[in-house]
Design brief:
The chain has 309 residues and is of the alpha/beta class. The radius of gyration is 22 Å and the shape is elongated. 17% of the residues lie in helices and 21% in strands. The structure holds 2-acetamido-2-deoxy-beta-D-glucopyranose (2 copies). It is found in: Cell envelope.
Amino acid sequence: MQVKISISLLFFLLFLSDLSLSSSLDCNAADRTTLLNIKSELGNPPELSTWLPATNCCTWSNVYCSDTGRINNVYLFSLNISTTIPPSFGDLPKLETIQLQTIPGLYGTIPPSFSKLRKLEILFLTDTSVTGAIPDFLSRTNLSALDLHNNKFSGPTPMSLTKLPRLQFLDLSGNSFSGTIPPGLLHGTDRRYLYLARNKLSGEIPEDYGNGDIDTIDLSHNRLTGDPSFLFGLTKPMTKIDLSWNQLEFDMTRPGVADPNSGSNPWTPLTLLPQSEFVKEAGGKNFCAAIHAIRYHQLSLFLLKQWHF
Ligand SMILES: *[C@@H]1O[C@H](CO)[C@@H](O)[C@H](O)[C@H]1NC(C)=O
Ligand SMILES: *[C@@H]1O[C@H](CO)[C@@H](O)[C@H](O)[C@H]1NC(C)=O
């Protein structure tokens, strides 16, 4: 499953981001000063040994420059540090992408200075110890992808995220988010992804996520209730729906939920099954075919038997 998510992300990034490797340009002096402040706020980790004063910061590791010599991407992975998120990120006004990934010693909350990042399109903050709520000021950015999986965030999924008109990739999996899922979190015309697995979300899934132009929905391992049958149907173009490990109830008579005649259905309803190995297998054609061959009422029984209440 992790591989699948990464591939989705990769396609998404290739699709969205236009990173230029213009290392011959000299970098903006203010950006260089800011990066040196960030390095200091991170405790001068050895991985950033190329970040030296009076050198061209477009040639430094872990950053990209735009074709005007402005820093537009900072990516930091697997650092052995123990500190908060550097507030100085807010002083890189042309920043479009921030990646802070697999840094377990990174703690504290998202700093208020991030509200200054009006051009920020991609924020990946994953596998850290960052806590707190998702701040409302993130809605002042230009985010199209927000990936906060495997951190220690809590609180509600804020309504303010719905104000991001380009948000089309949202991954909040593996935190302690609670409350209901707001409607209207995703925008854009194609390639929309919603991953909210492994939280404490409750209530019913808003009906607007069944409108057919979402690629992936993973809401597994929450406390969701209600009948999500509206997410299924022959015309829905989703590639994956995983609703396992919730307290949902299904209308098995609804077209597409468990219809044995839907052999041409491009997606599979089998990711409903609670065991993760079934979820993984559900994309396999053989498994699909096998289940489709089971008679309708048997399939119902099969699904209900596997259910975790
Ligand atoms: C991380 O850094 C601490 C002290 O700075 C050190 O004791 C520890 O061995 C380091 N761990 C790794 C995996 O490098
Ligand atoms: C926001 O991002 C879009 C592309 O995704 C871009 O066209 C637009 O200019 C950006 N807005 C700002 C304020 O940078």
